[in-house]
Amino acid sequence: MKIHRKRFGQHFLHDTQIIQDIVAAIAPHPQEHLVEIGPGKGALTLPLLESGCQLDVIELDRDLIEWLKKTAKNQNLRIYNADALKFDFKTLLIDKRRIVGNLPYNISTPLLFHLLNYASNIEEMTFMLQKEVVDRMIAVPCTHDYGRLSVMLQYYCQIEKLFDVSPAAFYPPPKVESSVVQLRPFLSPPVLVKNREHFAKIVALAFSQRRKMLRNTLKKVFDAKDIEAAGIDPMARAETLRLEDFARLADNYRDYI
After folding, report:
1. Are residues 134 and 225 in the same domain?
2. Which keywords appear in this protein's UniProt record, sorted alphabetically (predicted)?
């Protein structure tokens, strides 16, 4: 059965060795309850079910859902026809659970931000993503890839890039390389932040025009003296700041609302 819809950003994983490597990285346990986003044609779904785990999958494409139902025929599989960007994961994350998936590349960044809302209910996430996105996730200050995604994910999660995957592992092959990454939400964040909404706001503002100085990108909430009071050079750019720098700025933000 040939199913491919460009509007869903579908690229189906078919390389058996890569599939085995991802399943080995997930290491599912019998009776464990996992959540999969974007099962597609079951490249990960079917081997995960073979482990004896219980699997909730979220799929937007109704044609693929029908294909999965006919192919899997497994009582441990529950399928939700939904948009993962709008899905309320609390309905599935009753206990701390692990989430897996070959995420659609056209929505991967907003989907990662959406999942951060449920970080306290997630034990681990194992995803296949565009390599460029993973490089941004693990980037350090003063590098080209360091940005809002780096800061926010590193505040919430320990991140480990596992391995790269070539376009040849998919049908149709994407025009980009992919990577497999694991994220483990922290029990306690690496820096203390009094208000996470303020933290997210400051990070977003600081990187809204990444080549501009902080005194310009943050002028709606701080003047140069306020930035200096937080121990930060107002002429610095966001890409030079560490997590703790953003935390200090965020903790002062309450005075300017």
Report:
1. no
2. Cytoplasm, Methyltransferase, RNA-binding, rRNA processing, S-adenosyl-L-methionine, Transferase
- pLDDT (0 to 100) of residue 254: 57
Whether residues 43 and 128 fall in one domain: yes
| In the chain, % of residues over pLDDT 70 | 95
Q: Which residue has better confidence, 141 or 257?
A: 141
Label each residue of the chain as H, E or C.
CCCCCHHHCCCEECCHHHHHHHHHHHCCCCCCEEEEECCCCCCCHHHHHHCCCEEEEEECCHHHHHHHHHHHCCCCEEEEECCCCCCCHHHCCCCCEEEEEECCHHHHHHHHHHHHCCHHHEEEEEEEEEHHHHHHHCCCCCCCCCCHHHHHHHHHEEEEEEEEECHHHEECCCCCCEEEEEEEECCCCCCCCCCHHHHHHHHHHHCCCCCCEHHHHCCCCCCHHHHHHCCCCCCCEHHHCCHHHHHHHHHHHHHHC
Whether pTM > 0.85 for this model: the answer is yes
> Is 149 in the same domain as 248?
no
pLDDT band at 6 (very low <50, low <70, confident <90, very high): very low
Residue ranges of the annotated binding site for S-adenosyl-L-methionine are 11, 13, 38, 59, 83, 102
pLDDT in tens, 50-107: 999 999 999 999 999 999 999 988 889 999 999 999 999 999 988 899 999 999 888 9
Residues tagged in the binding site annotation: 11, 13, 38, 59, 83, 102
